[in-house]
Amino acid sequence: MDSLIAAAARALATGDALGALKHVSLRDDPAALALRGIAMAQLGEHARARELLRRAARGFGPRENLARARCIVAEAEVALAMRDFQQSPRVLEKAALVLEVHRDRANAQQARLIAVRRLLLLGRLDDAAVALSRLDGQGLPAALLAVAEMASAELSLRSLHTAAARASLTRARDAAARASVPALLAEASEAQAMLERPAARRLHHGRQQPLRLHEVEALLSSDTLVIDACRRGIGSAEHWLPLARRAVLFALAQALAEAWPGDADRNVLIERAFRSKRPNETHRARLRVEIGRLRALIAPQAGIVASASGFALQPGDARPVAVLVPPIDGEQASLLAILADGAPWPTSALSLALGASQRTVQRALRVLTSQGRVRSIGKARSQRWLAAPLTGITTNLLLPALLPQG
Length: 406
What we know:
The protein is an alpha+beta fold. The protein is built from 18 helices and eleven strands.
């Protein structure tokens, strides 16, 4: 390694991207291209960074597997920042194995952390938990340890294990302080602050009560029958029934729960489930069918009985009923929650994260754009979507795959 390459590497290690560029900006050898790519990534020029890193990877010879693997990991970090999930995870895993063979443990763990963060962004919590369990934090640099603890905290928050999240965030703050990385320290502090912000609203007798994450966790761990409009499901301490893909059944369940302990009028149920303000016999026949389906699904937890004017929810064992709704109104709450991280998201990545078609996501984005709640940058395939941060609340309950799916 020549002196200019070494000086640029030292500058990048301290976060001095401009200083690194002064050493290698006029060079086109693979090592310099790689360092220029990392510097551009630190400056937020992700498209240019990716181009330089790819050129560097192609420039390294067949015996320079270690250098090529490092470029792949750096490019994967850039792709994560760009919310580009098109590359196969196997490419990153293969690079991690090469790094382990060459005893570059820090970069190998960095590769696996990138894979964990990717899974978290896509809402694949079970896979993220498995990947995170394979990480060994012993002897890691303080900055990498802080990132690992932040990933662990996010997984715990998304799984509603708030005590574990608090412990991870404390360790993340300590590691970030040792590493002297202000951005990591600020991220950990912001995550701790989110724990004290409203995460949902509980509807009860026409009133709304804001709940923080640990209060939602306690509610879902109790014997209360919870109709959760954040994740579109029905849950209690022993069972979770997802209804995200059965909108009619969930609308009926929510209407029945909001009317509990009384009954819900048939016309109200028809309007909520079928969005019709002029019910006819066809609607009433369909209502009976859908009520029958819902009754069969929730039989282990509650019953539904007919009344003179409609239907009433009867939870088993005389347990109470609670309705949770998002901290913000609107059908696109989950989409806004994803975009609120401040990163520019392509439509394809939003589709993967939400588990919806790109056409559905595009329609939702058009609605939000007309309301001035999101904006786009770029055109065609380079188009990305942004939204302002959602202040005063935490969006964990709105992100994909928060609650158990069975």
